[in-house]
Amino acid sequence: MLIQFYVKRPVFRQVVFTVSYQILTSNYCNGSKFDYESTRYRKKPPSDKSDRILRSNSQVFDFNSWDHVQWDEEQEQQARKLVENNSVLQIDKNLIQTLNEDVAKNWDAFYNVHQNRFFKDRHWLFTEFTEIIEPLSSTKTDTCSTKNILEIGCGVGNSVFPIVEHCKNDNVFVYGCDFSENAVNILKEHEEYKPDRCHAFVCDVTSEDWNPPFAPESLDIVLLIFVLDAINPNKMQHVINQVYKYLKPGGMVLFRDYGRYDLVQLRFKKGRCLQDNFYARGDGTLVYFFTREEVKTMFESAGFVEKQNLIDRRLQVNRGKQIKMYRVWIQAKYMKPLS
């Protein structure tokens, strides 16, 4: 399917980009009239079809999102070609060094602009990661009844506050750390920030020493939710090794991040690539796109035991514009052995 994108340049002329490709976005253009009003309130299937599996292409615009979408070989090849194309021209080496050195600075600038308005609260955590709300296992080697949770890359608290709220009657304490001092300050100004329930601090997790407000082997859960992708691939293993150091035996890492050929990766233009599958956005923040095998290798190299490692492929649709958008995420759970 050929899709045309009209982009307005500063000189007010329209340039037409034609993309022979239906993975990035795909318009439903069979000439039939689409009854948007009949579906505008249907964000998910009814309770008797709650699995959100697309069983017929005729239903694709009935709802906003479909789970466990299968790609065929043609889609894989098209995505691979797009990535090869947008990776041909890489960023200048001097700029790459600057981007890697200015990670905290660029995230500070991001939060200075967006404040707490950019990301939505992650209430979906309790569906995907039930470990957050489950009681502590009796097999743990410690006798402390407090569940200690750390989120790395906590931002302005879009995970921290839903956890604190959801677990308000439980003995749960949430730590949150972030590169950005601006983000941490915004989090601390939130009306729900209570020092007896949570503690936020600035930390460059790529540094040799974290100096955190907790001891080694004191955490029950560590959240890595769309954060490892923002770190230079050469430093990812160090971060995971540090996580292993601070988790209790039996503790869990809950991981979710961008997968290879996600819509975000396919949208990058030439000249934004630092190295294979690692890009710089226009605001200077960085993003990497993982495979299951890469995630498995990093965590098992640190000593973790794999409990889950899956590709979450979803089809998100804009029913008004009749556009299809394919998302790819990696979701994984790893445990630190009891002995």
UniProtKB/TrEMBL annotation:
InterPro entries: Methyltransf_12, METTL2/6/8-like, SAM-dependent_MTases_sf. GO terms for biological process: methylation. Residues 150-253 form the Methyltransferase type domain. Belongs to the methyltransferase superfamily. METL family. The gene is LOC103506826. It is an enzyme of class 2 (transferase). Its EC number is 2.1.1.-. S-adenosyl-L-methionine-dependent methyltransferase. This is tRNA N(3)-methylcytidine methyltransferase. It comes from Diaphorina citri (Asian citrus psyllid). Pfam families: Methyltransf_12. The keyword Iron-sulfur does not apply. Keywords: Methyltransferase, Transferase. One of its GO terms (molecular function) is tRNA (cytidine-3-)-methyltransferase activity. CDD domains: AdoMet_MTases (cd02440).
